[in-house]
Amino acid sequence: MLEIEPTIVDPEKPKKIEKPKGKIEFKNVYFKYPGGEDYALRNISFTALPGQTTAIIGSTGSGKSTLVNLIPRFYDVDKGQVLIDDIDVRELTQNELRKYIGYVPQKSVLFSGTIESNIKYGNENLSDEEMEKVADVAEALEFINNLPKRFKEEVSQGGKNFSGGQKQRLSIARALAKKPNIFIFDDSFSALDFKTDLSVRKK
Ligand SMILES: Nc1ncnc2c1ncn2[C@@H]1O[C@H](COP(=O)(O)OP(=O)(O)OP(=O)(O)O)[C@@H](O)[C@H]1O
Ligand SMILES: [Mg+2]
Q: What residues are in contact with ligand 1 under a 6 Å CB criterion?
């Protein structure tokens, strides 16, 4: 692992986003997975405006996760551009870029620790009051309140001691805790029932 050269590298003269708004633009994006034969994404162009929710719909394997993974630069495009506030993501450091993004992956990931450490992962300065608030918005507060140690409850490796829906809610709470300009939800409501799903969206 130590000998592997990262393919995603920071630019030598990085730009900065002065006043983050959260506009995302794809310009004629083509993307092929390393070693893949065919393009997973072909000529994708769209703009997601600040203050709006943009939904990407498609059948399984159509490239939805692939598309959103290009925004925090988990992969780089082969052709075209991904821009945030009109700046190409490759012109920002990964640190600068990801500061503005709250990303809830399709498969929720929890870390060993406590519920609190998992929620505060993206924002150490979050107060306990705010932590309750984000847990409430993510519809996680009710089940947390039913646990003996509440936010101090232990999370085992990979979050094995929580159900799929509970993991998903905690991972939504973690993204909210960061207070980012851009939220990316990759099928993040799939393990929630319709009522809970609706309630999270409303809040
Ligand atoms: N890490 C990877 N390496 C190589 N090919 C991949 C990788 N991840 C996805 N693919 C391929 O890229 C295509 C798009 O996959 P992607 O996961 O983006 O689909 P999706 O629209 O998110 O599907 P789902 O609705 O099932 O989540 C698929 O053909 C898949 O096999
Ligand atoms: Mg997907």
A: 33, 36, 40, 58, 60-66, 106, 187
Atom of ligand 1 nearest to the CA of 35: 4
pLDDT beyond 80 at 191: no
In angstroms, what is the span from residue 33 Cα to ligand 1's centroid?
9
Minimum CA distance residue for ligand 1 atom 29: 61
Distance CA(126)–CA(123), nearest Å, equals 6
Q: Do the domains at 24-99 and 113-202 have one common CATH topology?
A: yes
The domain locations on the chain are 24-99, 113-202
The answer for 73, left when phi > 0, alpha when psi is -120 to 50, beta otherwise, is left
pLDDT tens digits for 104-142? 999 888 999 999 999 999 899 999 999 999 999 999 999
Structure tokens at 157: 């490796």
Q: Report the pLDDT value the prediction gives residue 198, as an integer from 0 to 100.
A: 82
For ligand 2, an ion, list residues with CB under 5 A. 64-65, 106
Mean pLDDT of 74-99: 95
Helix (H, G, I), strand (E, B) or coil at 183: strand
What's the CATH class of domain 113-202? alpha beta
Strands 79-84 and 87-88: antiparallel
The closest residue, in CA terms, to atom 6 on ligand 1 is: 33
